[in-house]
Amino acid sequence: MINLNYFCQPSHSNFQQPVRYDGYLIATNGHVMAVMPDDGRLGAKELSKREIFQLRLYHIVIDALSNNRVMPPVGPVELPEKETCKTCRGSGKAEKRTCKECDGEGYLEFESDYNDYEVECKSCGGDGEIVVSRYIGKSCTDCNGSGSVYKQHVYVLVDGVYVNPKYYELIANEPDLQVFGNVLERKLYFKTADAVGIIMGVMTSGSSKEAA
Asked: Which one of 17-26, 101-110, 154-163 scores highest in mean pLDDT?
């Protein structure tokens, strides 16, 4: 069964945990989304119509469902090798907090009499978050507690769409997995035994690719 918490964005005010709307549970971080029927067991926040209107990925997923889009079973996809997670240093445990210097933006803006400037925040290195503890406490959100991550800018090709392997890994071992790649829009739709969703594709110019 899909773990919806892995699809969420811990630093987002509305989507730190799965939410519910119109009989569905929804989990997203803006790059990937999973939707499944709400069985009432999960204590999730109910979204308002205004909030769901702003959630573009939800409408894309629901539109695909309503059109009964055919998704064939997916063939084997070889994921690239991982490296030790720098955030938790391989322990699987780490806790981050929003950087106070840049308020989570990852950059700072200032101006002089001559120019406006935007520079990377040195406190957080542009991440917008600072690691405050390792080896103990919460599961590391960068590696989902595994202690290892995929290298940056390495992607896998699934049904014609290049996607981030860390997002495809969330569904790779789900039973009855089916996918449909919209190559022009760079969207990978998926169905599993208990959920449907979407992974946003990436442009790969100048990046490493792992063909599947």
From this structure: 154-163
Element (H, E) at 166: helix 165-168
DSSP at 113: S
Tokens standing for residue 97: 């907090």
DSSP state of 73: B
- Of 17, 138, 154, nearest to 87 (Cα)? 138
Query: Per residue in 142-164, is it b (16+ CB within 10 Å) or e — as a string?
Result: bbbbebebbeeebbbbbbebbbb
Residues with Cβ within 8 Å of residue 212, at least 6 apart in sequence? 75, 76, 77, 78, 156, 157, 158
pLDDT digits (tens, 9 = 90+) for 134-179: 887 788 888 889 999 999 889 999 999 999 999 999 999 898 899 9
Q: How confident is the model at residue 12 (pLDDT cuts 50, 70, 90)?
A: low
Q: In the block, which residue shows the tokens 């070889």?
A: 78
Strand partners, 24: 21, 37
Task: For residues 198 and 28, give the distance between their C-alpha atoms in angstroms, rounded to a whole number.
Answer: 10
Predicted pLDDT of residue 136:
78
Question: Phi then psi for 105, rounded to 5 degrees?
Answer: -80, -25
For residue 182, what is the enclosing H or E element?
strand 178-182
19-27 long-range contacts (CB < 8 A, ≥24 apart) are 19/44, 19/45, 19/46, 19/47, 20/44, 20/45, 20/46, 20/47, 21/46, 21/47, 21/52, 21/58, 22/52, 26/55, 26/58
- For residues 178 and 75, give the distance between their C-alpha atoms in angstroms, rounded to a whole number: 9
